[in-house]
């Protein structure tokens, strides 16, 4: 089992532990805001399981039915996570509505808050692991899981502060109002996760910084060619797909043109891990004098 899968499996374990603690905190207090926190943790467990399955599928080698691999499975997981976050937010809004209509005082609030603080601390530590390792391993599923967990940590902090305020002021209605505010924040978080993942499913190009690095590498390594044009890029999970046309002199032999392509591919793969490169070689009359010019 590689590191990405181990982290995804760890998310499930952490999610179950945190869900148990937050459910205990809610049962101890009867707080609608703490219930909202527990409901979001339910989503954490489900999405961590979805991420694990997606990562396993994404790591399958290319086959006859999927010649470009299964890398986009991670984006599907991230979209599913966004949908589930939104569903959780709607459930919280329903609970908040009932709480606003019939507010009630909290039971054993301080003890319950301490349990919730412990759960939030575990989430914060694991969130850092997911974001840092997800970016290093170029795993959209782990990064999406980390971003969701980050929103959970932030909202948990707001929940704890709000419940304390309700205790101090004695206004029980603040508890369900706070739960509604948390739900709106979770809705926004789910929307951002979904839109970012849909970009990957729609073959969104690499960032401007990465594109600049790709163009620079091609220009540096394509000596012997005339120009490169029609550069296209896209992401699929940890893979970066790059394709472009390389114009060479009509007198250039197949072996010489192949050597230029090999040199460019080697440099691009050294600069970008898990890059898959396709180069279409063309004679000089196909030059467009635009795109990536070879100096």
From TrEMBL:
Pfam families: Cation_efflux, ZT_dimer. GO terms for biological process: intracellular zinc ion homeostasis. Residues 11-202 form the Cation efflux protein transmembrane domain. It is a multi-pass membrane protein. SUPFAM superfamilies: Cation efflux protein cytoplasmic domain-like, Cation efflux protein transmembrane domain-like. GO terms for cellular component: plasma membrane. Residues 207-284 form the Cation efflux protein cytoplasmic domain. Keywords: Cell membrane, Membrane, Transmembrane, Transmembrane helix, Transport. The keyword Transmembrane helix applies. The chain crosses the membrane at residues 7-26, 38-55, 75-93, 113-131, 152-171, 177-194. GO terms for molecular function: cadmium ion transmembrane transporter activity; ferrous iron transmembrane transporter activity; zinc efflux antiporter activity. Belongs to the cation diffusion facilitator (CDF) transporter (TC 2.A.4) family. NCBIfam families: CDF. This is Protein p34. It comes from Paracoccus lichenicola.
